[in-house]
TrEMBL record:
Name by which UniProt lists this protein: Alcohol dehydrogenase
Stated family: Belongs to the zinc-containing alcohol dehydrogenase family.
The protein's required cofactors: Zn(2+)
Domain Enoyl reductase (ER) per the UniProt entry, residue ranges: 10-338
Molecular function terms from GO: oxidoreductase activity; zinc ion binding
Keyword Chaperone: no
Pfam families: ADH_N, ADH_zinc_N
Matches recorded under PANTHER family: ALCOHOL DEHYDROGENASE-RELATED, L-THREONINE 3-DEHYDROGENASE
Amino acid sequence: MRAIVIEQFGVLPTIQDVPTPEPAAGGVVLRVEATGLCRSDWHGWQGHDSDIVLPHVPGHELAGTITAVGEGVNGWQVGDRVTTPFICACGQCEQCKEGNHQVCPNQLQPGFNYWGSFAEYVALPFAEVNLVRMPESLDFDTAAGLGCRFATSFRAVHQVGRVEAGENVVIFGCGGVGLSAVMIAAALGARVIAVDTNPAALELARSYGATDTVQAAPETVQAIRDLTGGGAHVTMDALGSNEIVQQALLALRPRGRHLQVGLLPSGVRLDVSRLIGQELEWLGSHGMAAHTYPEMLDLVASGNLRPADLITRTIGLDEVPEALDALTAGTPAGVTVIRP
């Protein structure tokens, strides 16, 4: 099969012919119909993830068709249209038994722990726990974007952040995660303020439900406090930046909630005294379990959520190295989907 292969961190990957994977016991192999290009893939390419062993095939947001089923897999067969969270949980540990698959200590992530979906085929472990059957009305491009960015934002905003109608919610960073969060928070009835350096991204944020937009600048915090009458109820760092974290915490009103979704490979500085004195909440959110997808899929089917609108570009494998390299300069507006 053809696949994008990283041989050195930070050096452009190449397209190579590599062996097609075989299904492990309990797992399946999919023909990749669509896969998303995510900033997490860029972090992996740069060497920010210690789980990656070279040579490596990235890619963790995916949808496809089952082509092979491993021993011991029940309920799934060749030809099924499926997607999956980027966190493949074991289903057997204490956290999994409590329903917290997204923090499973035995989790395996395609594109990080093993070869991923920037290829014509990909293997998935623990199939019975992690596969999500796609409704007939859901296309592969849209489904691919659900597994990381959209599902991550849905759980962060709705389940972890507890966003309610009428609250002021500020989303910092309008890439795929941030724009998903804008759409979801707006659908929940929140007043959404989007912050980014890119005017095109802010324009998209308005079309997805942002009431106000702020172009990132030294005056960002004051602009937010003015718009919200004293500070936001919820802020979210959808990009991953120490500078954003500082602005997000300063933009909160007392007893506000901060959602950290963007990765922070270089660490972060926290004013713990402010967290204590203002009774602020710092909330980490990491993915979403497969068994919690039905609520999100129902909202997509009803038209209340429109993840297909977030897709702004579709490319083939040949264009992936250049697209991955472009992330070095910043996150483009919208979601890029790869069709291998």
